[in-house]
Amino acid sequence: MRRRLATRRFDPLTDQVNLHPRDPVRAYIGLGANLGDARRTVLAAIDSLAGLPGSRLVARSGLYWSAPLEATGPDFVNAVIALQTSLEAHEMLLQLQQIETAAGRLRPYRNAPRTLDLDLLLYGTACINSPHLQVPHPRMFERAFVLLPLAEIAPELVSSGQLAALEGQRIKPMVRS
Q1: Fewer beta carbons within 10 Å, N or C terminal of the chain?
Q2: CATH code given to domain 15-173
């Protein structure tokens, strides 16, 4: 089978260049927030992600409360979503950072409390190791707040052994309302 090469096309309606990759991919994105109205921020971010160009929300985990890991501050609200997207991985990263910035994300120091944190966990089967992006996310398998919601929407991606290794981390499902 012959694959279509990535192309760039100018869209005069948005005054931007649209990137069209070879094939759409399934991307998994971790969401977290622990400042302000964290629940509302995470839900708004899910809506923003679902509206990204060339992207469609495929699955969304429930919301979870989790204790900060390697950080201080209030408990986090976390979730994981799956998008089917035609955005290139680095363009996806830029979109995630724009959504974080719009939510008031500041980066005063590593693991600081945050209004919103968006992590590209997986991008199809790609392995990416660039100065600005690593996929799979390098610490995703060390974090219950990633693996538990990911297992909810894509159980084939998380083993029972991986979940068992994180049993000591405090995380609980948020009651849906």
Answers
A1: N
A2: 3.30.70.560
